[in-house]
Amino acid sequence: MCVGTIFLFSTQIKAQATVDSLKVKLPKHYFKTVIVVDGYNKANQKFTDTNDFTAKRLKSYGLKQFSLSFYTPLVSYTDVDTVKHTTKNTHILLTGNYMRLRPVFEGIKQHDLIKMGFGLRFIFNSGKKGVWFVDTSPFITRDATYTSQGYFRMASTIVYSHNVSERFNWRIGATKSFMWGNKNYWPFIGLRFGRLDKVHLSIQFPRSINLNVPVGPKLTMSFYTKPQGGMYNFSNHDSIYYLSNASTFSYTRYELNSGFRADVRVNDKFNFYVAGGISSKNNITFYSEKANKARQNLPYRTYFFKENLGPTIFLNLGLVFKFGKTRTFYKDRNMYDVMDLNNTIDVGDNNGGAGNPQIPITPKSKKDINLQSVQDLIDYNDF
Questions:
Q1: How many CB atoms lie within 10 A of CB 81?
Q2: Measuring CA to CA, which of 5, 165, 211, 302 is 20 to 30 A from 223?
Q3: pTM of the entire structure?
Q4: What are the tens digits of pLDDT across the range 324-381?
Q5: Best CA proximity match to 228, nearest among 180, 264, 298, 188
């Protein structure tokens, strides 16, 4: 008995020494590097305004869009307060976006409009109930079909997010974006009902309304409505603008997309999504830069062509690639909100977006919990 006790005690000492000598290096970041490849198509529509010379010249309008965007962590700082039992963290992300937009006009040669830029995002998690989000996204647009000068613009957003509980969140802030087809400044007001890892309704004015329904640990269905659009530099090579000395003008588009989206989580490194529905409130407008020169920091008001089109269908496909090891934040209410904030404001105001690939989906019941689902819920990279 005595020999057995000594042997057990000796084994415990050796095991403790082994654990103490093991230096586990935790991953530095919470965010993975995420790359999104997105394709968007919209059916061609005939212009119905037969009295407008430009409409008769262009004949019809459709849309093909390809985008490549990413975000990657640059700085992650964590401060753990063992007395107050709070964990604060600060994140700085680098973002990038490349978009090739092809407005399809039957009456003229197809133009390839390019938008590209890099930006920075600052996110501060107070460790209590509040999260701050600041985004700056400068970019350049140009018409790659013909030689044209690039046009510089800047989008930005600031939001304070307050987690009252896991099931209720509100947000307030301000945003400047071009997705409404102009240089618009809007208040940002958000409400969320339900947990982010379960069924929830998210109302984020003026960006989106989403009803998200997890079907399983690998699949999420969402029903949504959101604006899409932009402001691009367009070559006047076709002499669409009547002033011959104008080499370019601003082509802007706006639409409201309503439909459903399916996000499939294939594994820890790859997701894909499929979305489709109705595109309504379609509008395209052509602005002269010279005519709006006095409104450099304000929405444009003077245009030489404007056309509203009826509803049509759209299709959106996307691939999401995820890289890197991250710290675990399973069941961390504020970190879930950090991730959701980052994906609510799409990089480059793209139509798709990553779709919260790092927020685990909670199994519906205990019988659904197995080794595979546990691996989906908890990141073992920390160990």
A1: 10
A2: 165
A3: 0.84
A4: 998 888 888 899 999 999 999 888 776 667 788 888 886 554 444 444 444 444 443 3
A5: 180
